[in-house]
Amino acid sequence: MLLVLQLWVTAFSIQLINQQSSVSASSLQEAEDGAVPFHDTFSVIWGDVLFDQHDDVVQLKLDQQSGSGFVSLENYMYAYFSASIKLPHDYTAGIVLAFYTSNSDDFSKNHDELDFEFLGNVKGKPWRLQTNIYGNGSVSRGREERFNFWFDPTTDFHNYSILWNHKHVVFFVDEIPIRELKQSEELGGDYPSKPMALYATMWDGSGWATNGGKYPVNYKYAPFKTSFKNFKINGCATNPIVEDQIEIPSYQTRSRMTHCINNPTETLQLWDLTSIEKQSLQWVRTHYLYYTYCQDTNRHYSTSLPECAAQDTIKLAKPGGYRSHRPKQRLGKPNS
Ligand SMILES: *[C@@H]1O[C@H](CO)[C@@H](O)[C@H](O)[C@H]1NC(C)=O
Ligand SMILES: *[C@@H]1O[C@H](CO)[C@@H](O)[C@H](O)[C@H]1NC(C)=O
């Protein structure tokens, strides 16, 4: 036991030295790695998943018969998940495309979840982006945030990424952080802390997705197809989920050590956003955030959640178009 501990301490110190000597402009570069092949990484859950070997594109299909979805073969305890996604265009009202991590198959009563949800729209109106976070079954405390896009997500591939380690959860769009939730003692079990798998699903959300259900899916425009490529999962696979991993570590004992040494998401650079990333986050939230649970006074629990107390009130945008508020070059994209 002592030897193991000693080895680990040594490994940790070496890593610390390495990290301090390599000054990286972008924290994300640490987590970025080669793309993983679809067939080695995922399995189809249901419906039609179409493959185009030629350009490595995978498509989810929704038609009158069925939606579709796939899931990663492994569960991960802290990871960086990413994919390039191109959404269907034209009439897409009622459609939900979800790109998310979850462990609801293993923990039906106290699951964790991190969501990108893309909500379709009527012809000529833009898609909207929703994110959500659940920890240890906190389904009675939704933490939704909704954003307008600053580009048309149907004309090209864009990168959607989730970074999850013991310090924070960060949602990125094209390497620009749009949302961050920091781990804290007050959050307790609401911070996702059990292994999760990565999912992508497309389904009929007629009842709520567009204007509260006013515009259902119109199958006259089917089949609807969403394209994916460039999958990245860089983390610590923990299959099978065994008893000692189910135990949620207390806040004090949660650490980079959890479940695997050298988890690529547990490096100093990935424990905090760079100053450029913080500015980008601010830019997105100032111009594109149009709903946040922290400012939803209709939900009486929301404003009293621990992470909300520390946040300044933001002047929210209106749900709307793809207008770019500033030339993108001036954003200081973290990866360039
Ligand atoms: C998405 O990421 C890839 C690298 O994985 C990069 O080549 C591409 O430019 C990115 N796309 C956008 C729109 O940022
Ligand atoms: C997680 O949920 C379980 C079951 O509801 C509960 O017993 C446990 O105390 C929770 N853990 C934390 C850290 O909140």
From TrEMBL:
Its main location: secreted. It is an enzyme of class 2 (transferase). Residues 31-228 form the GH16 domain. Keywords: Apoplast, Cell wall, Cell wall biogenesis/degradation, Disulfide bond, Glycosidase, Hydrolase, Secreted, Signal, Transferase. The active site is at residues 113, 117. GO terms for cellular component: apoplast. Contains at least one intrachain disulfide bond essential for its enzymatic activity. GO terms for biological process: cell wall biogenesis; cell wall organization; xyloglucan metabolic process. One of its GO terms (molecular function) is xyloglucan:xyloglucosyl transferase activity. Gene3D superfamilies: 2.60.120.200. It comes from the Eukaryota. Its EC number is 2.4.1.207. Residues 1-19 form the signal peptide. It is found in: Secreted, Cell wall; Secreted, Extracellular space, Apoplast. Belongs to the glycosyl hydrolase 16 family. Catalyzes xyloglucan endohydrolysis (XEH) and/or endotransglycosylation (XET). Cleaves and religates xyloglucan polymers, an essential constituent of the primary cell wall, and thereby participates in cell wall construction of growing tissues. This is Xyloglucan endotransglucosylase/hydrolase.
